[in-house]
Amino acid sequence: MSVDLTLIIAIGVLVACGTTLVLERSLTRILVGFVLLGNGVNLFFIVASGPPGAAPIVRDNGERMADPLPQAMALTAIVITLGVTAFGLALAYRTWQLEGHDDVQDDLEDALVIRRAERDDLSASFDEVDESLPEEEGADLPAVDDEVTDENAETADDEPHNDGAPDAGGTR
């Protein structure tokens, strides 16, 4: 069994170029990179299936039968690539309509986490454990207080309450 070196090089180039394009910020480039990755993986399935053989259903002669699993996996990969490409194309088109470009923006929460990490700040929801307490069963769990402290009462009055009624303000 000899493997064609040209196909191996083509697989490497397609996967390398696809990976590089998927790491870009433009949705169009990400889409092209995903298509290149899909084609590289399909070529890999075909190369990994081995030499061609007779059809797996027809058994009238003594030829070696082809393995149908890599062919089925390649067909499945084609369908998945087509679906994700269609979704990505719709996403890129909608982003282009709304923003005038198709660049992926940074997430605001990620930027906040990065700034906190650079300052080495603790999150507001982090409770420090008092190590002077004895170790008992369930001691690592925070205590639940039913009374509202003054600090929590000030913030609780400022927050809007939703009692399940529909929003009459018309905001989205």
Automatic annotation (TrEMBL):
It comes from Aeromicrobium alkaliterrae. It is a multi-pass membrane protein. Residues 127-157 have a biased composition (Acidic residues). The chain crosses the membrane at residues 6-23, 30-49, 69-93. Keywords: Cell membrane, Membrane, Transmembrane, Transmembrane helix. Belongs to the CPA3 antiporters (TC 2.A.63) subunit C family. Pfam families: Oxidored_q2. This is Na(+)/H(+) antiporter subunit C. It comes from the Bacteria. It is found in: Cell membrane. InterPro entries: CPA3_antiporter_subunitC (IPR050601), NUOK/Mnh_C1-like (IPR039428). Residues 124-172 are annotated as: Disordered.
